[in-house]
Each structure stands twice: as structure tokens, then as C-alpha cells.
Amino acid sequence: MRKLLHAAGLRYRVDSPPLRTMRRRADLVFGPARVAVFIDGCFWHNCPLHGNMPRANTDYWMPKLKRNRERDADTDRQLRAAGWLVIRAWEHEDPTEVAARVIEAVHERRVAVRGKRHGSLPV
Description:
The protein is an alpha+beta fold. It contains three helices and four strands, in the order H-E-E-E-H-E-H. GO terms for molecular function: endonuclease activity; hydrolase activity. This is DNA mismatch endonuclease Vsr.
């Protein structure tokens, strides 16, 4: 997916905190457009299609995976409150489709940011 985004002319930071005050890291960060992209692993983020609960040590894994999802939701809330667009994709999704979503979102956000700078969009 990164090759597709780069080929589309997009530049981004990899494995970076979107906000300086945030310890959590996004997989891709488009700073000027304020777009954070997370590619969630099916196991670690408990994908509804492919997330399998381990049979061994379920007393550990069930709360662990639940906390991961709660942390994801909290991260999304914090970023949205700071004016960021959050894009989440599952690792099993088609990279071409995810890249298309990201490209469209970044271009739209860039236009909106430019418009705000020039006073053409309401604040």
C-alpha cells in the first residue's frame, strides 16, 4: 500500500505519533492534511472476520484483546477531537482499495486546509 501512496505523490511519516502529546503511534501520518492511518492486525485488534481467540490462557487473552480495542477507540476519539481524520483498515483488506480511500481522504483534507487558510471555507 505504501508504494501505491508514494506513486500517487503522497508523502507521509511511518510509525509516528500524530500528536506530539500522544504516545500512541499511527502506521502512516499525513501531517498537513491531519490524516492518521492505522492498519490493524486481525489477531491483535480482534477482527470480527478473522480474529481468533486463543484456546490457551483465555483469562489473559480475552481482557488483553478487549483493552486493545478500547485503546483503539480512545485513540480515535483523541485524534478526532484534535481535528484529525482517522482511517482504520484491517490487514486482510485489499491494499489497492485501502490506498484509494487514503488518497481520496488526503486530497480532500488538503483542499479543505488550503481553503481555510485562504478564508474560503467557514471555520
